[in-house]
Write a structure and sequence with these properties.
mainly alpha, 4 helices
């Protein structure tokens, strides 16, 4: 049996992750192994950004930057939605840290 090409493996992985995502959306609780999967996906994302940054011309770093910005925007919208959906959300130490970083990022963006 011939070995799968990397492109075939990537396609199969994308399909498997879509199936897992669909099943997780229906799960009543976080299943065992979910934290390990999250760490693996985060590590894979970091590796992919590095590979994309190094590849295919001068526009590669710009594409990666835009992917990171899109991911950040999605995360911030999710946080905003979570904060808005509760009458009085609990305050976590990460809220203060996020506020500091958000202000610093906003200042740098305004300076662009």
């Amino acid at each position: 049996m011939a070995e799968e090409t990397l492109a075939q493996q990537l396609s199969a992985l994308a399909a498997l992750l879509a199936e897992v995502d669909s099943r997780l959306a229906k799960a009543p609780a976080a299943p065992a192994g979910l934290e390990e999967l999250k760490r693996s996906v985060d590590q894979l994302r970091t590796s992919m950004w590095a590979i994309l940054s190094a590849g295919h011309g001068l526009s590669a770093p710009m594409r990666v930057e835009r992917l990171k910005l899109r991911r950040a925007i999605d995360g911030l919208r999710s946080i905003q939605s979570d904060l808005s959906s509760r009458s009085r959300p609990p305050r976590h130490p990460e809220h203060a840290e996020l506020a500091v970083e958000a202000r610093a990022i906003a200042e740098r963006i305004e300076a662009l």
